[in-house]
Amino acid sequence: MLGKLGKSLAKTMKKLAGMTIVDEEVVKEVIKDIQRALIQADVNIKLVFKLSKSIEERALNEEPPKGVTPKEHIIRIVYEEMVKLVGETPKPLKIDKKPYKILFIGLQGSGKTTTIGKLSRHLQKKGLNTAIVCTDTWRPAAFDQLKQLTQEINIPVYGEPENKNPLEIANKGLEKFKDYDVIIFDTAGRHKEEKHLLEEMEQLSTAIKPDETILVIDGTIGQQAKEQARAFSQSTPVGSIIVTKLDGSAKGGGALSAVAETGAPIKFIGTGEKLEDFEVFDPERFISRLLGMGDIRSLLEKAEEIAEEQEVSEEAVDAILTGRFTLREMKSQFEMMGKMGPLQQVINMIPGLDKLPKNAPDATEEKIKKYLTIMDSMTEYELDHPEAIKHSRIKRIARGSGTRNEDVKELLKYYKVTKKAMKGLGRRNRGGPMGQLMRQFLR
Ligand code: GDP
């Protein structure tokens, strides 16, 4: 995330962690490293100096709490001050009305359309019936893009590419989707003049009366984000901001800090082009990951959720980590995926282990559901002994689960490839820190 910025900050923290003596000189050196990284990421120079001063003052004057080494104390201070730089923990998006109307605004190219797809997916996963209305009359392709993005996830999109009146489209969409939980309105991101664009936003806002207005900002513009946030919020009351494209450019750091400075809450961030590359923005979680401290907190939270529902047995995790992997473990893994997000995403959160082997197959949610249905029709023996599933068993399982023989065969093939991939993963991590971590968290 954030490309070079993340790398250099993580390097600094690692260097700090490796030092034996931590004195004033070390503190100053660490601060210099951080300054350099942040300035390169286009963080406003005043903010950088403010941050350096706080770190220096605290590091040199505060006594470490009992049981905390001076080094740990400084790591903590850097972490805390960096968290302050990107803002306070925003309130989550609360859908407390039906239909809950969300107005999306932002300049063309900011990633608005993609982000609408991502948010609709996010809400759908929470069980909310979501629909989209495209009022962009300037870029007729926007409607097609939205349809394409959401086709796979079955989210309806309303639009009239021929109609030049965005207010009319908005009203029709409102009527059409009035029974939905959430309606998201896409708007134009370009006009001949910016003034007209802002006017249109204002009119749409008056007509739709949104429960939330979200501004999308391209993270790669760095600290210019501040001006953009100001310009939009002057014409339309902006409730929250989504900063996109934080996957590549270091400048995202500048954008995040600039937006945080305006006081507007950043609720989500975009971290890639795919629908899944989207997350709730949490400054603490974000900074701990940026500093290479691993996203331990988010993993913890997810694991807690799972523990509550008691869906994953510790045995299954153990089995995966030690290389035993039968259909039973795969079934358990699928159930776990439903709760933690795709495996790749889970793995990304574990420090030092950020890539699944390349040949690990991709399982779409739809497929996972089908596979789970198939596995429900298997006997205990079959789950433990996948190799015994041959012709007649395949037929019986297909019949029992209402699927075709080919589906069962596909599942078995998926199992084989995954097993191979899991073997590599297990070997690397058996008894290692990742194994311990997973076990601890999934208990
Ligand atoms: P719009 O004009 O604001 O509706 O922007 P689009 O949604 O069409 O996005 C513009 C480009 O940015 C597209 O190529 C997207 O794939 C890309 N994009 C959007 N969000 C992200 C992101 O979080 N990361 C990356 N790398 N690309 C993104």
From TrEMBL:
The segment(s) forming the SRP54-type proteins GTP-binding domain are 265-278
Key word Transferase present in the record?
no
Q: What is its main location?
A: cytoplasm
Which cellular components does GO assign to this protein? signal recognition particle
Q: Where in the cell is it found?
A: Cytoplasm
Q: What is its EC number?
A: 3.6.5.4
Q: Which SUPFAM superfamilies match?
A: Domain of the SRP/SRP receptor G-proteins, P-loop containing nucleoside triphosphate hydrolases, Signal peptide-binding domain
* UniProt binding sites for GTP: 106-113, 186-190, 244-247
Q: Which UniProt keywords apply?
A: Cytoplasm, GTP-binding, Hydrolase, Nucleotide-binding, Ribonucleoprotein, RNA-binding, Signal recognition particle
Provide the GO MF annotations for this entry.
7S RNA binding; GTP binding; GTPase activity
Q: Name one Pfam family in it.
A: SRP_SPB
Catalysed conversion reaction: GTP + H2O = GDP + phosphate + H(+)
**InterPro entries linked:** AAA+_ATPase, P-loop_NTPase, Signal_recog_part_SRP54_M_sf, Signal_recog_particl_SRP54_hlx, Signal_recog_particle_SRP54_M, SRP/SRP_N, SRP54, SRP54_GTPase_dom
How does the record describe its quaternary structure? Part of the signal recognition particle protein translocation system, which is composed of SRP and FtsY. Archaeal SRP consists of a 7S RNA molecule of 300 nucleotides and two protein subunits: SRP54 and SRP19.
**Comment field on protein domains:** Composed of three domains: the N-terminal N domain, which is responsible for interactions with the ribosome, the central G domain, which binds GTP, and the C-terminal M domain, which binds the RNA and the signal sequence of the RNC.
Membership in a protein family: Belongs to the GTP-binding SRP family. SRP54 subfamily.
PANTHER family linked: SIGNAL RECOGNITION PARTICLE 54K PROTEIN SRP54, SIGNAL RECOGNITION PARTICLE SUBUNIT SRP54
- According to its UniProt entry, what is the function of this protein? Involved in targeting and insertion of nascent membrane proteins into the cytoplasmic membrane. Binds to the hydrophobic signal sequence of the ribosome-nascent chain (RNC) as it emerges from the ribosomes. The SRP-RNC complex is then targeted to the cytoplasmic membrane where it interacts with the SRP receptor FtsY.
Q: What is this protein called?
A: Signal recognition particle 54 kDa protein
- What organism is this sequence from? Methanothermobacter tenebrarum
